[in-house]
Amino acid sequence: MEVKTPKTLREAITYFSNPDNCVTYMAAKRWPNGVTCPTCGSTKVKYDAKTWRWQCASHHPKRKFSLKTGTVLEDSPLGLDKWLPVVWLVTNCKNGVSSWEIHRAMGVTQKTAWLMLQRARLDVIACRDIQSYRCYDHCSRRGAARKA
């Protein structure tokens, strides 16, 4: 499933402001062959649009999971509408981006922007696959990113 990729920051902010676009985009990039449970790897999952989470058909302790599960975004209270434009900035700005730029562009505090920037950089460094956001699944596990 091919999804639209924003070309400019303005397009990214506008496109990712819709939660359904965020879910569609991230699911397509993270699971190109269909959604799988991050705990057991099962493809028998059911989507709950009300909570934006999936539930695995297999019975195990971590049946429910979201797009953030197992990524650097997992423990963040910020939504994908804030995270995806920041990841877009980090991966598309040739000369890098500062936390002050993120603070001004996204309307978050500078401290929050700094933390977002650190996590996004960890993700990009761990992946070495800047143009493909598929890093969220394979390389973004927080423990693996810190060890790398």
Strand arrangement, major sheet:
1-2-3
Number of helices: 7
The helix/strand order is HHEEEHHHHH
First-last Cα distance? 31 Å
Shape: globular
Rg computed from alpha carbons, rounded to a whole number of angstroms: 15 Å
For the sheet with most strands, the description reads: 3 strands, antiparallel
Q: Structural class given helices, strands, pairing?
A: mainly alpha
The overall number of domains is 2
**Share of helical residues:** 40-55%
- Total number of β-strand segments? 3
Strand content: 5-15%
Low-confidence stretches: 129-148
Mean pLDDT equals 82
What would your notes on this structure say?
This protein is mostly helical. The protein has helices at 9-16, 19-30, 80-92, 99-106, 110-127, 135-138, 142-147; strands at 45-48, 53-56, 64-65. It has two domains: 9-31 and 70-147, no CATH class; 35-67, no CATH class. Strand 1 (45-48) and strand 2 form a beta hairpin. Helix 3 (80-92) crosses helix 5 (110-127). The longest helix has 18 residues, at 110-127.
What would you say about this model in short?
The chain is mostly helical and 148 residues long. Helices cover 47% and strands 7% of the residues.
Question: Can you lay out the helices and strands and say which pair or pack?
Answer:
Blueprint: H1 9-16, H2 19-30, E1 45-48, E2 53-56, E3 64-65, H3 80-92, H4 99-106, H5 110-127, H6 135-138, H7 142-147
Antiparallel strand pairs: 1-2, 2-3
Helix pairs in contact: 1-3, 3-5, 4-5
Descriptive terms for the model:
mainly alpha; 3 strands; disordered C terminus; 148 residues; globular; three-stranded antiparallel beta sheet; 2 domains
